[in-house]
Specification:
Oligomer: heterodimer
Strand order of the largest sheet of chain B: 1-12-11-10-13-14
Low-confidence stretches of chain B: 1-6
Radius of gyration of chain B: 24 Å
Strand order of the largest sheet of chain A: 12-11-10-13-14
Number of strands of chain A: 14
Bound molecules: iron/sulfur cluster
Structural class of chain B: alpha/beta
CATH architecture of the largest domain in chain A: 3-Layer(aba) Sandwich
Helix content of chain A: 40-55%
Strand content of chain A: 5-15%
Low-confidence stretches of chain A: 1-7
Number of strands of chain B: 14
Chain lengths: 465, 459
Amino acid sequence: MKNQKESYRNVSENPCNMCMPLGGIIAFRGIEGSMTLLHGSQGCATYMRRTISEHYEEPIDVASSSLNEKGTVFGGEENLKKGLDNVRLLYEPKMIGVLTTCLAETIGEDIGRITSRYLEERQLTDGLPIVNVPTPGYGGSHSEGYWRTVFTIISSLAEDRMSHAKINVIVPHISTADLREIKRMLRLMNIDFILLPDYADTLDAPYSKPYKKIPDGGTRLEDIRKMPGAKATLEIGLTVEDSQSAGKYLENEFGVPLFRVPLPVGIESTDRFFNTLKLISGKEIPDEISRERGRLLDGMFDSHKYNFEGRAAIFGEPEQVYAVTRLCLENGIHPLVIATGSRSKKLEQLLHAEFAKIDGSPDNHHEKYELMSDTDFAHILEKSREVKVNLAVGHSEGKILTERADIPLVRYGFPVIDRVGGQRILSAGYQGSLCFLDRLTNTLLENKYRNYRSEMYQKYYQIYK
Amino acid sequence: MESRSNLAIEERKDSIQTKGEQTQPFKCNTDSVAGCVSQRACVYCGARVVLNPITDAIHLVHGPIGCASYTWDIRGSLTSGADLFRFSFSTDLQEMDIIFGGEKKLTRAIDDLVAKYHPPLMFVYSTCIVGVIGDDLEAVCKAASKRHRIQVIPVQSSGFIGSKSAGYKAACDALMRLMEPPPGEELEKDKTINYLGEFNLAGELWIIQNYLKRIGIELNVALTGDSSYDTLKLATKACLNIVQCAGSMIYTANQMKERFHIPYMNISFIGIEDTSESLRRIARTYQDTEMMRRTEELIQTETEAIAPKIAYYRSKLQGKKAAIYVGGGFKAISLIKQFRELGIEVVMVGTQTGREEEYETINDLVKEGTVIMDDTNPSELEKFIIEKEADLLVGGVKERPLAYKMGIAFIDHNHDRKHPLSGYAGAANFAEEVYATVCSPVWAYRERCLSTGAKEERT
Ligand code: SF4
């Protein structure tokens, strides 16, 4: 095993991540009736809207304060206020999320002060919540932006300590199909929950007439306010730093017991998901779920031999990377290149522990794996070639591995922009894991069959001759 | 519920007009209004669009990572040679670089890239914060040029200094530096032409190049589709510039006229009418009857070849209504004509960066009652699509889901499309695409709900 610490690099070549505010936009999309405004120059908003649109195939309306030269020199307060006015006029939102961009952060805009003054001036102090999140693009990847926004939403809105029987469920950035699957599993367990952020409908809205500028769905504001009174918090996210963890906040501030679990992908993580739910709620796991589990096991046995030929490169947001790595390990697929564009200490620790479990000692693993954080595709490609990877798992930008090194890519995570249905990719729970595993195995098989005849010919006919 | 007029935004009033009802002068080419969800991009984006197709250059984005990741390989420009342009390079500025300045990091980045790729040419783009922290791009690039003996060209494209058109100008400035011959050296003019504002999306350049060749005209270099350092260096020897995307390249055309005495003409190869007319006008400048004859011959052959296809689609599309929202004015103008060729009426036209004279042309082309808008937003698009009962929207990636959510057809006229829309071949593709989307069986289900379906089953 080798843990490659990316030393300071001068240039990023083909990025593996996006910037902070993008993650924030997605998190805000999970709140009922909310609208987002980016404080900064126009381009940032347009680019992010485009990227999110392409993945989710939804109109992504994000306003911008459209800072120009004047605003940059003399401060953007007027622009931001005017932006808020227009957003209210055009969208009539129930909540507004304000995110900053590089530019606003660099010129030192105090959005908290500006927006609270705005609320006073317009006499909206108890009508319209505005949640401010500083998200400088240079401060972290979209994954960090997502977690920070979820954290800030809770820390600014949660207030009601009155206890109730629901449990808080906090989710990482996953596909809307996965989000729906998590809700289905919670319902099967008969659990009353508050899910945050819930963009299952807002980022995958059914066709309906008339068109709604702010789609239905999302976590209700009154539910978020009640989160401090919940019985417990289930935070799906092991890679989140404590300081950015909304679950930790609820525990520290309001004493809501926190249970942290990984994404329920693969058998062990899904087991842990259900066992934790059982522990929190005292409810039994229904038969239907046991049958789904049995089916996953059955499928794992059926395909295990093919999977053993898998040599994988895995990349994306830390939480997803961790989930996929575990799924691979459980099924005999060798994760050899594990990479994220984020800077994640937690991911490194978790993976070390994981590999150690398999071999007793992390240094005994039969093949070296490379763990790279804060990395780019130039490095991922180089490593993948070196260790002869035959399967890549991650978002669409990984297509460069297929193009330049003929490594097939199974699309997972965000963004999936060169295929339809990025939002519908199901990978969570026992059922989702089996779908996911099938996609991996079939990709290996497809490749194997495609090259089988020529390979054998080259290898053996030549000797025979 | 939906009664609220989107025109509630006072400041936007003069940027929207209905043909036949205008009272005020039309307002365009201004900053976007805060909070209006403009569909516009930024200065950096404009510069990147124009320069990106230069195939063997390193395009280094000096700034934080996001700007580079959102623009990595998102255009469908094709190359016949090097493909370095498809990579995304960024200095990936971090908090510390913002505080202490990014010049040193930029210098090291350039050095690393030169050592790894030995490019003949490098562009260094500035993003928003570079303008604010005050890195001296010019000086860093100049020193690097000297050190490595290649051209390292700064592109002043800080996001907030204007809109996309300011980026076009920044790109043009960069291109001019490339063309500047060493003092005392002038390239001899020949009979070739340059093709400006053409980015070789899905091979469009090659289609037009072939037409020109068939009528006896050699292409010198396209700016910037499938171009390279060596070909761009020779740009000044052409005898004529033809300009397709005026929005992005008119500035360069003017500069080349002034500095190198190369005349230019605006042309368009979008749609049959414009393609034929453009070929004729180019041929005419050579005052060569044989060439003019060949041109007519080509027009006839090519038009006839696609005529049955166009006629068929026209018969299916006659009477439909289209809404247009594209980047530049020139594209909108061609599209209006092209729709006319298909029997489709345009009921709404908007652009992100259209210029005054382009809006005048648009106004002349469309029917009474057509809505014309500058720098519009989703709310206005929605309002007028409903009001004008459009069957089809032409736009970019961001507009696509809006059209589909409203249950109407959509045509992608963005830079990432994977099929050509230029020339006769492109016109046929366009007709086919319009047909494929407008006449898709899926729209039949738009008005039907679950219960009506069941009712029909029973009868
Ligand atoms: S990195 Fe900064 S400037 Fe670039 S898109 Fe992201 S927020 Fe905007």
